[in-house]
Design goal:
The complex is a heterodimer of chains A (about 575) and B (about 200). Chain A has a single domain, classed as Cytochrome C Oxidase, Chain A (Up-down Bundle). Chain A contains 17 helices and no strands. Chain B has a single domain, classed as Cytochrome c oxidase, subunit III, four-helix bundle (Four Helix Bundle (Hemerythrin (Met), subunit A)), CATH 1.20.120. Chain B is built from 6 helices and no strands. The relative contact order of chain B is 0.14. In chain B, α3 runs antiparallel to α4 and α5 packs antiparallel against α6. Chain B has about 200 residues and is mostly helical. Classes of the chains: A mainly alpha (about 575), B mainly alpha (about 200).
């Protein structure tokens, strides 16, 4: 027993690939505790659910291409948008970001692995479990949850068929499991960042991605338990018949909205903060300049954490909240523009006068930044109480949200996947396919989500399967954009699979980037540097300054070239 | 281990690895406790909002909660924080039997508290579906009771570990974590007692 375990661990520690080692595709289907395997497991699972969620979205857009409700039944349509939102948030964007966290954080800070490798693997394996639970709700009598991804009571408390196992109950169970998985992950990421940094890597020398991941995971730790508490009460109301939210028993439906948005607004910062980190990593590499204003970009992340926890009522301006609350939350919401503005200007200053290298990763980062600025402007409009009352529950909100989530966040995720693909697979991706993916994605995003803004201003409500013919023009364009986005996934997946299988071998540092992860071979061995962690002697992003990042950098780079 | 020395030399020794990870465990556990406290915060604020905005808070026929007996059990639970601290004190002085005695006493006091809770639940003439008041009461006390139960189980685990040879040679992070959890559960109960029984 000891001898086999010893040999196993020796092989796992050796650089990939080792003949006869469990370094094959099977390890991605096992309870593996290596953060880099878990990272790829997260990303692959997330991309699968991106396809599922995207398919639902395209069915909806197929329905909306004509004003009449003629493609699917209205009740089915309710289930479609509910499941689309839930899948995309809990099964695509959170897992894909956790995948990036797993790949990048230990390598960037020079840690051998996460602080709690088994907890890490358990957190990942909960994702397919609640994924299956959520998918199973398509099969139960009455269909899946149909009350929107917010699950507001009293709508979500309706259980017309009276079954104990119904779509809504499965939805709550899946969301609760997702919350447990995320908290397990967050404890792990925060502990790893706090305790396992390389010698010499002070907090002020940490890459921005780690700052933003730390900030995002802090939000998870503060916000998720509130949602979990709220969801437990919803489950009790639905299954046991308690009266937390049931007005007839003295409950308060608006209370649920507070719990829900106390987490679910900060959740968008959980999503966008790591993407800010990706922008901050990529722009210096491809502009060959140090990041402008590092301390401010890092500090702004923490300011966003603080502010994100006191803005949630802006989702409830029309929910009968008192006027003072509306005023206060309008102000706090607008304040968020200050730290985000700091970041945007820092990126612009980084790009300014730089020698830009427009490969696929950089194009996605620039496209994501462009879309984020657009979404930020509509976000400020929505923060204004009079505008929000006017466009609330219209397509304006849907457009704004999708610009953030797809236009900025998902494009940032694509940028990260392309940028670090050579590092973690050991193969270069195909630039041509990548640029085609970018082109289709950018055009598809604009065609799909821009028309939602004029539609919302004209007054088209969200969550309807039929609409007045005056809205038809913009809806046709949006639907075509949605199908184009569906097509854009084809070159992406083709690129990932074919370049991993037969792409050119990647050197250790294909982009001439500065960072601990680029001082590891591609792909990095299990346990990364093991105990030979280099000592960090200067801050990150020293492009064009000639300062080495770590002690003995020349020797490490020479060794990597020879290998 | 049958590994040849050169390969094995590069590997960090399992002992040092485990010690380092145990250290992180405490950090991780404290982070988890902070996060856990937000669930209670959510329940507390939900309770406060429902109570303050209720037209009729108590279900018909219910006068209010009897607080004297629960106060007695409160004293038992809160003093178990003291016995846990004493147990830790004995552990730090290396007196393992003193640790075990007071550790077991704390577990017993937790069990007495749970027993009192069960007795009270059985004597009440309202249920979890008796309006918002009943919903809140059973959710809050039940969720806290689950934490007391988890605490007792954690303590049993630590007690069992203390019989493993040389387990406490280099200090035991698990004991520190468990006692932190126990103090946490006690503080939550004091707040809960004030909210449920004193505020009426």
């Amino acid at each position: 027993m000891t001898s086999t375990a010893g040999v196993e661990s020796r092989i796992l520690r050796a650089p990939h690939p080792v003949p006869g080692a469990p370094d094959n595709w099977k390890r991605f289907f096992s309870f593996n505790t290596d953060a880099k395997v878990i990272g790829i497991q997260y990303i692959a699972t997330a991309l699968f659910f991106l396809l599922v969620g995207g398919l639902l979205a395209m069915i909806m857009r197929g329905e909306l291409i004509t004003p009449e409700a003629d493609l699917v039944d209205r009740t089915v349509y309710n289930g479609l948008y509910t499941m689309h939102g839930t899948i995309m948030l809990f099964l695509f964007i959170f897992p894909v970001l956790n995948g990036l966290n797993n790949l990048l954080i230990p390598c960037m800070i020079g840690a051998p692995d996460m602080a709690f490798p088994k907890l890490n693997a358990a957190a990942f394996w909960l994702v397919p479990v609640f994924g299956v639970i959520l998918m199973a709700s398509f099969l139960v009598p009455g269909g899946p949850a149909s009350s929107g991804w917010w699950s507001y009571p009293p709508v979500s408390l309706q259980n017309p068929l009276g079954h104990l196992i119904n779509g809504e109950a499965l939805w709550i169970l899946a969301v609760a499991l997702s919350g447990i998985s995320s908290i397990m992950g967050a404890v792990n990421f925060v502990t790893t960042i706090l305790r396992m940094r390389a010698p010499g890597m002070t907090l002020t020398r940490m890459p921005i991605f780690c700052w933003t991941a730390f900030s995002a995971q802090t939000i998870q730790l503060i916000g998720l338990p509130a949602l979990t508490g709220g969801a437990v009460m919803l489950l009790f109301d639905l299954v046991v018949g308690t009266s937390f939210y049931r007005p007839e028993g003295g409950g308060d439906p608006v209370l649920y909205q507070h719990f829900f948005w106390f987490y679910s607004h900060p959740a968008v910062y959980v999503i966008i903060l790591p993407v800010f980190g990706v922008f901050s990593e990529l722009f210096p590499v491809y502009a060959r300049k140090p990041l402008f204003g590092y301390p401010f970009v890092a500090g702004a992340s923490l300011v966003i954490v603080g502010l994100s926890l006191i803005v949630w009522v802006h989702h409830m301006f029309p929910s009968g909240v008192p006027q003072w609350m509306r005023d206060a939350f309008m102000v706090t919401t607008m304040l968020i523009a200050v730290p985000t503005g700091i970041k945007v200007f820092a990126w612009l200053a980084t790009l300014w006068g730089g020698k830009l290298r427009l490969n696929t990763a950089m194009l996605f980062a620039l496209g994501g930044l462009f879309n984020f600025v657009f979404a930020g402007v509509t976000g400020i409009m929505l923060a204004t109480v009079p505008v929000d009352i006017h466009v609330n529950n219209t397509y304006f909100v849907v457009g704004h949200f999708h610009y953030v989530i797809y236009g900025a966040a998902t494009m940032g995720v694509y940028a990260a996947i392309y940028h670090w693909f050579p590092k973690f697979t050991g193969h270069m991706y195909y630039e041509g396919l990548g640029k085609l993916h970018f082109l289709l994605t950018f055009i598809g995003t604009s065609l799909n989500f821009f028309p939602m803004h004029p539609l919302g201003l004209m007054g088209m409500p969200r969550r309807v399967s039929s609409y007045d013919p005056e809205f038809a023009f913009w809806n046709v364009i949006a639907s075509l954009g949605a199908f184009l986005l569906g097509v854009s996934i084809i070159p992406f997946l083709l690129n990932l699979v074919s370049s991993w299988v037969r792409g050119a071998k990647a050197p250790a540092n294909p982009w001439n980037a500065i960072g601990l992860e680029w001082l590891l071979p591609s792909p990095p061995p299990a346990e990364n540097f093991e105990e030979h962690v280099p000592t960090v002697i200067s801050g990150p992003y020293g492009y064009g300054t000639g300062r080495p990042l770590v002690e003995h950098q020349d020797e490490i780079e020479r060794a990597l070239l020879q290998a | 281990m049958t590994i040849s020395p050169p390969l094995d030399a590069a590997a960090p020794s399992p002992e040092s690895h485990e010690a380092a990870h145990a250290n992180y465990s405490l950090t991780g556990f404290i982070i988890f406790l902070c996060s856990e406290s937000v669930i209670f915060l959510a329940f507390f604020s939900g309770y406060a909002v429902l109570k303050l905005s209720a037209l009729q808070w108590l279900p018909p026929g219910v006068e209010g909660l009897e607080w004297r007996t629960p106060l007695l059990y409160t004293v038992v639970l809160v003093s178990s924080s003291g016995t846990v601290a004493l147990a830790e004190h004995f552990l730090s002085k290396g007196q393992i039997w003193g640790f075990r005695a007071f550790w077991l006493l704390s577990m017993a006091m937790g069990a007495v508290f749970l027993y009192g809770q069960a007795i009270e639940w059985r004597s009440l003439d309202f249920g979890i579906t008796s309006g918002s008041f009943g919903s809140c009461f059973y959710l809050l006390t039940g969720f806290h009771g689950l934490h007391v139960l988890s605490g007792i189980l954690l303590m049993a685990l630590m007690l069992q570990r203390s019989f493993r040879p040389a387990n406490y040679a280099a200090g035991e992070q698990g004991v520190i974590a468990t006692s932190l959890f126990w103090h946490f559960v006690d503080v939550i109960w004091v707040l809960l007692f004030l909210l449920l029984y004193a505020w009426s």
